[in-house]
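Bug #2210: token dump truncated for Iron-containing alcohol dehydrogenase?
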Amino acid sequence: MRRNNFVAREELAVSTIGYLTTTIFDYGAIKSLPTELAALGVRRPLLVTDAGVQQAGIAAQVLAHLDPTTVAIFARTPPNPTEEAVLEGVVAYREGGCDGVIALGGGSPIDLAKGVALAATHEGPLEQYAAVLGGVGKITEKVAPVIAIPTTAGTGSEVGRGALINLTNGSKLALISPYLIPKRAICDPELTLGLPPLLTAATGIDALTHCIETFLSPLVNPPAEAIALDGAARAWRFIQRAVTNGADREARWEMMMAALEGGLTFQKGLGAVHSLSHAAGALRSPTLHHGMLNGVFLPHILRFSAQSVGNKYEKLSDIFGISRETNLAAAVSDLVQSLKLPTTLGQMGFEARHIPQTVVRALADHSNATAPRKASAEEFEGLLRAAL
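Reproduced locally. Full output below:
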């Protein structure tokens, strides 16, 4: 009897993928954690996670594979990682006599873990390592080794070279360096089976946005574009299934792969969706979910950039299985709405008074450099008002 590819995958050994870093991917991948820690020479790791992951019992699942007496735990990651939390994590790292970091959770714990791995091994304030301030070259190979274990299928931070941190001065800056790419990514879709529908949708839209934006970036990187297209196709096909039935193992596998592929394409750069999402996400109040912001901004930026991307919208339409005559921005907007995600900033608590500071931050964001159409201050303001 002919068996589908997903069944065949489950019967094979866990996949190991070498691209930028080493990724162990499949159901059961978490069992490899002790082996990977040993391979990196890590004997006393700091587990960086958040309260939600702890309460869901996922941290306990991970610790079950380790001697808990050798692991220090920092579980106070805020929804958007902050410089204050990084410094608290460094204290936990040093008090635990740690020599490496396990990042467990969504993008926030993984980014925070990267910040801790940097700050624990490099002197001075984090701001000096921000990419837009010339900090890339200041980050060295001394960064503590990180093993990233995602519990959502969204950010791709487990294979990304950057970490977004809200600094104490109110800015949200990216720390970027190849030395910040985790030494290992352990991607086990089992850890996402309990993710609620809303978070499944929000993180899934994040993954889709990464693939679309990196594909549209004008930088020349055909291998990254091919990965982005493959990831976008997976996300488009399986996100609704993952949201509708969180126990759908095939959909969870495919969405985690889409998220991974989105992260693998970061080398090509993002664009104006992320410039705006990073900027709006820097607000301390209200706290805005990054994936939901992407879902609001993506249709607006697709309309804004339509004349600056050649025939790439046609290629996206082809892999999505929609007519080339279909308005791509409208199709994405329909998808976001069908997933019951916010479709306006107002629904998320963003107000008109937040626009001026958001425009300033969006203009300064590192993602602007690779946008197919760069927005002016006036255009950013118009986009934000349209999204309200």
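Output looks complete on our side. The longest strand covers residues 100-105. Marking as cannot-reproduce; reopen if the truncation happens again.
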